[in-house]
Amino acid sequence: MPLPVLLQAPPEPIPVRPIRIDAKTTPRQLTLRAIAAAPRQMVPAAMLLVMHQVGESLVPVIMGFAIDQAVATGDYVRLALCVLLLGADFALLSYSYRFGSRFGLLGIEAVQHRLRTLVADRLLDPKGVKGRAGLPGVSLSIAASDVNNLARAVSIAAWPVGELAAVLLTGTVLMVLSWELGLIVLIGVPLLLLIMDRAGGPLRRRSHDQSALAAEASGKAADLLAGYRVLSGLGAQGAAADRYRKASRDALDGSLHAAGAQGVYTGSMNLASGLFVAGLALVAGLRALNGDLTVGQLITVVGLTQFIIGPLSGLATNAGAIWAAALASAERVLSILQLPHHDATHGDARPDQGDGKLSLTGVRTEHLDGVDLDIAPGECVGLRATPAAAADLAALLSGGTRPEAGTVAWQGRPFAEYDLEALRAAVLVVPHHAALFDGTILENVSLLTADRETVDAALDAADCAEIIDAAPAGLDTEVGEEGLRLSGGQRQRIALARALAQRPPLLVLHDPTTAVDSVTESRIAERLRAARGTRSTLLVTDAPALLAVCDRVVDLNGKAAA
Fold first, then answer.
1. How does DSSP classify residue 383?
2. Which of 50, 215, 429, 449 has its CA 20 to 30 A from that of 370?
C-alpha cells in the first residue's frame, strides 16, 4: 500500500474483496466474510500489531537480563548495550502500533463503506423488494449503526491476533524460565477464551434486542416528521407523540439493559483475567522463595505477569464484546440484504420510448374497484380520485405493486412483462410530495441528462421564471437538502419542471399545483398541455384549471365528466 494512503484519506474508496451474500448466508458467515474482506490492510496491520505486542513483552525480559547480567555483575558495557536495546525495542513497539492501527482502521472503513453500499443498493434496487424493508428510520439505523457494528468486527483480524501473539510469547518465555508457569499460561488462556465465547451468548441476544428497539424508535420518529402535516390536519399529534414516547422509552430501557449486560460481561472477564494473573504471580513468588528463580528472572516474571493483563483484557473486549455485537448487527443487515425482489416474474422486455398506450382493465386493489381506463397516445386525461385510490394507482403505474385483479398494460403488454427500470422511464409517476435533492436548480431539473434547451422549456412550462429571477445565482442557486431553501410553491414548480424535462411517453402527475396560487395554477395549466405535445399525460387532481385543459375527465367512482 502506498505511503500517502497512510497519511491521508485516498480520493477513491479502497477496494475490498466481494462479500458474498445469498439466501443461505448466516449472521456468523456474514461476519466472517466481512472480517476477511480487506486482507491488503488487515494482514500488514496484524503483522505490525504482533510486532508491537512482541516489543511490549520483551521490555521485562530485557530488564531482567540487564539486572542479572549487567547490574549484578557491574558490567557497564552490557548495561549500555541493554539500554540501547531497550531504546530500540521502545521505538519498534511505538511505530509498529501507530502504523498497524492505521492499516487496521483503513481496512475497517473500507469494509464499512462496502457494506453500507450493499445495503443502500438493496434498498434502492429498481426491481424493488418483496414485503416491507421496514420504516425509513429502521432502514437508516441498519445502514448506519448496524453496518458500523458489523464493520468493527474487522478489527478481530488484527488487534486480537497481536494480543494472542503476546500471550503465546509470554507463555514461551515463562516456559523457558519455569515449565510450571509456562504450562499455566498455555493451558489457562484457551480456557479463558472458551469461557468468553460461552458467556457472550446473553450479550449477543441483548445487543440484538436493543438494536431492534432503537431502530423501531428511529422509524417512528422519521414517520412522525414525514407525516406531520397529515397528523396536524387530523389533530392526532398527541397520539403520535405518545406512540413515539413509548417506543423511545422501550429503546432506552433496552439500551440500559444491553449496556448493563456488556458491563457485567466485560467486568466478569476482567475479573477472571485478574485472578488468572494473580495466581500466576503467586506461583512465581513461591518459585523465587525456593531459589528456583534469580532476581532478574523474578522481575521478568512479575513484569510479564503485569503486562499480560492488557492482552487478556483486550481479548475479552475485541474477541468477545465486538464479536457479540457484530453477530447481532449481521442478523439485522441480512434482514435487508436477503430480501427477495418484489416480483421475480418481471420480464426483460424494454418498452418502446415512443408514444404508447396505457390500459387498465378491471383493476382491483384495496381502494380501487374494477377500474377500466384507456389513455391513447398524446391524450391528456384528468382523473378524480380519493387520496387512498390515488396512492394505489400511483403504486400500480410505477410498477411497485400488482393489482389484486385485472391488468395494467403499456402498449398492449402487461407491466409484468417489462424490465421494471425501463418501464419507469416510459411511465413516469410524480407523487404529490416530490422531493428535491441537495444541489442547484439546474441540477435538479436536468438530472444531468436533459439539455439546456429542454430545461428552459420545462422551466417555462412550470412557470419558474420568477423563481430563477429572484434566486441569488439563478439556475446555479443551491436549493438545500429536500429543497428547504425554497418555499413550498417554489419546490413544487421546480419538481414539475424536472418531470417535464424528462419528456416521458406517459407522465402521471398527482396534484402538481396544490402549493401555488390560482393565477399561477392557470398559467401552468395552459402551458402544461402545450409542453406535453404528442406525449400522453394523466392528471390526478380536482383542480378545475388543470381539468379544464384535459381532453376528457374520468371519475373513479364511475361518474362521467366532460
1. E
2. 429
With H, G, I as helix, E, B as strand and everything else as coil, classify residue 9. Answer: coil
Residue 344 CA to residue 23 CA, distance in Å, equals 15
User: Which of 321, 332, 117 lies closest to 211, judged by CA?
Assistant: 332
Cell numbers 448493563 correspond to what residue?
260
pLDDT digits (tens, 9 = 90+) for 376-389: 888 999 999 888 88
Q: Which long-range contacts (CB under 8 A, 24 or more apart) does 456-459 make?
A: 457/500, 457/501, 457/531, 458/497, 458/498, 458/500, 458/501, 458/531, 459/497
Partners of residue 405 on adjacent β-strands: 364
Retrieve residue 169's grid coordinates.
510469547
The amino acid at 147: V
pTM above 0.70, yes or no: no
The count of C-alpha atoms lying within 13 angstroms of the C-alpha of 283, restricted to the half-sphere facing its C-beta, is 17
Give residue for cell 382493465: 361
Phi, psi values for residue 537, rounded to 5°: -140, 135
**What are the angstrom distances between the C-alpha of 194 and each of 143, 270, 315, 317?**
32, 14, 11, 14
Give the three cell numbers for residue 158.
488484527
Instruction: Return d(Cα 552, Cα 140) in angstroms, integer.
Output: 43
- Cβ–Cβ < 8 Å for 455, 501: yes
Local structure of residue 22 (DSSP, 8 states): -
Q: How many residues does the chain have?
A: 562
Q: Scan for cell 411497485, then name that residue.
A: 400
According to the model, what pLDDT value does residue 345 have?
45
* More confident call, 134 vs 410: 410
- 46 SS3 class: helix
State the Cα–Cα distance between residues 329 and 326, nearest whole angstrom: 5
- Contact assessment for residue 80 and residue 21, using Cβ atoms and an 8 Å cutoff: no
DSSP string of 243-306, one letter each residue = HHHHHHHHHHHHHHHHHHHHHHHHHHHHHHHHHHHHHHHHHHHHHHHTTSS-HHHHHHHHHHHH
Pairing of strands 536-540, 380-384: parallel
Q: Are strands 506-510 and 427-430 parallel, antiparallel or unpaired?
A: parallel
Q: Please give the Cα distance from 189 to 205 (Å, whole number).
A: 25
Q: Which of 16-30, 105-119, 356-370 has the lowest mean pLDDT?
A: 356-370
Q: What's the rounded Cα separation, in Å, for the pair 16 and 114? A: 8
Sole residue written with cell 389513455: 375
Joined grid coordinates for residue 66 = 540487564
